[in-house]
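Handout, section B. The chain below has 878 residues.
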Amino acid sequence: LLVMVGVAAPGPFIHLGERVLAAADLARAAFADGRAFWSYQVVNLLKFGGLLALSGAALLWARRRGRGGQVALVTVLAFDLWLYCHGFYGASRPACLSFRPPVVDFLRSMQTPEEPWRFTTFIAPGEKTFNANVGMYYGLQDVRGYDSIIPRQYVEYMERIEPQDELLYNRIAPLSDVPSLDSPLLHLLGVRYLLTTQTITNTGWTLVYDDEVKIYRNERAAPRAFIVHSAHVVPPAWVSLSLTTYDLRRTVLLADRDAPTAYAVGCQDCVSSSQPAIISYRPNEVVISATLDAPGWLVLTDSYFSGWRAYDGEREVPILQANGAFRAVQLEAGAHTVRFRYSPLSVRIGLYGSFLAAMALALLAGAWAWERFYREAGEGEDVHRVAKNSLVPMMASLLNKGIDFAFALLRLRILSPAGEGSYTFAIVFIGYFEILSRFGLGTLLTREVAKDRAHANRYFANTVALRALLWLVSLPLMLLVGFLYARFGSMSRDEALAIFLFAIALFFQNVADAVSAVFNAYEKMEYPAGLSTGVALGKVALGALVLLWGWGFVGLAGVSVVMNVVQVLVLLLLMRQHLFKAHVETDAAFQREMLVTSFPLMINHLLATVFFRVDVLILKPVKGEATVGLYGAAYKFIDGLNVIPAYFTLAIFPIMSRLAHSARDSLVRAYILSLRLLLMVSLPVAVATTFLAEPLILILGGAQYLPASRIALQILIWSIPIGFINSVTQYVLIAIDQQRFLTRAFVIGVTFNLVANLIFIPRYSYQAAAVNTILSEIALLLPFYYCLRQHLARIPWLSVAWQPLAATGAMALAMGALQPISLLLALLVGGIVYLVALVMVGTFRDADVALVLGKLNPLARVRRWVMGMRGEAPIAPE
């Protein structure tokens, strides 16, 4: 009936009729007559009819009875699936999975990591000896394959050995023609072993195994990687035809779309005196060491495919399509370490997009939870406010660093060390003028408005006006310094363009910073913190697009302009909704007074920045942008960790400012408590990072940043504990109005840092910069302590530090002992040992530490919230 309708009707029914006719042809081939066909299909028809009836009954029941009918529908569906599948998948004994044929044991015994090889099979008609893809299960590499994504180039290569008469582009067939065993293309593939049931008499094949099958060793198999010193360049259409024309052991065949005809390059008679050595061979990465007597090509007989990248040391080199199907890189004479890495852009974009989506969901969930559950603290709840004002911005900043870290996974690989070095240099360059245009006014605004909120608009309006003026003043200075650097420090055109865009973004960032300072003074740090995470998501999303479009770090600078404009507009709107409506209130005399007061703060900030990042300005002209990129990759972890003391001190600064004028004893107590808490965090982080430096750098930038970035990170991380102490000490000195002394202290630190880097960076490069960072922190701590002792109190440093130091020592011993076994186990056990050691030495018996931990106890908070939801009176905090 369907065939008749298909013949009579146009369109889809014609195709339906064709399918029915095809099915009829299959049925005639499978069954002797119609009776045999119906005897087989009647059971299926009965099943179909029964299930159709059950489905109809369940639908009627669901329409009349509701939930009971829905359960019946699900039951019918499950029964349908069981009826179809239960007899389709056969059951086998589990012991069959663990069986390994003796031939596999023999082949695996022949494997060596330094000299990988391939195998294939030789069959007679009707045989399926060691079927394709079986070797994959045992870790054996086969030239055959059964897959739906075999590249055409490989099929064409194999067709030059023997015609591929099985599924085209779906299966690479075993060998069956005796002459194929003598093909030089088969030897070039590195086919070392041949599995067969036949007897092979061809020259060069030696029988090495004779049991359930025979194994012959190919004495003419080429190594996986080798050096050639000459190349023939041909049009792509000629490649397949030219494979048998040249001696591919001594000459590589390269395709060039622009080549009108074949031509030779390189040294035709040169022969390499040594063969490359495979250092590491993994599915996604191959590392090869090679020494060339003359310029040539390193040929790796693995498939050429998009997504593979090659690095000669730290420099990325292009991968050429060699001999139609393989990879080659061109090298100069000398020693080389070449790394092939599979890093397809599609996978990176997918992971990156998934990460951004997860971060956006987390941000939305956090905003909802904050609005739903958070309640402002009452008067006198200083610990509560410090916890909120430090932990919320700190967690938001850490989240931002995590977003930036994920972006760096993409950025560092696209820009390479040289491009990343230029990007880092541009940021450091603009950072100095950012300090000039901000002029320490943000800290002054926060301090004064925290004392008296009635003057909030006055300080805010004059701060914005001053910063606009200072930004205009900084532009010609920026142009002059940029010209001098380009003249004597080799600033590139792209670096200059990026700095120009960063300068535009700086104006809007200065306004946004002023609004954030007002929120800090009102102790509502959560608003700018939450917005900063949204801005970070926007920056990295747009940044990924500009990088993929090929706009490089200049495009990233343009993204900063766009997102800074968005940030300042949203912050102004939030300030109007939650704080006050800003209006113009400029006062020239008041602005001069603000400049005089904030000048020491600006100088201190400038000196602190010079103190930390002057090494980059010296590394760039002395060692080049690639070294800056390697050093900057390690510094990203330091920058991420520095948000902890930054936001902690920002949160306690308003309270310290009040205590400095009313209760000096309480200020000392709060300072000592801050030191203990920061040391308890920084010391174990330093130990863990020392052990985890290599995997951290591998995750961030890949092997192209090793070992330099790993060494730099292992040194730099030990500046963190001293830096944490200096961070909180600096704000204590500001609170007691000793910002002018800070200037002298920073002059000492900067002088030491500058002189030490100028002396040692030319000789010891980034290692000297890292060591000098630690020594400079110590040089800064000494005058800080002198000022504290003179104007505040004598700090019992031994009493403050010995407990975290003892616990950290125990952690380091535990991780050192377990690192050879498992780095993850060492980290887990080391963390447990650290916490247990803190308890044993009595850290938590300190009254102030116990008070803070009690306030931050999440279980107690949950318990009070649940009681509040029930309408019960919550338990008052201690």
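Note. Residues 1-13, 377-384, 858-878 have pLDDT under 50 and may be disordered. Compare this with the example in section A.
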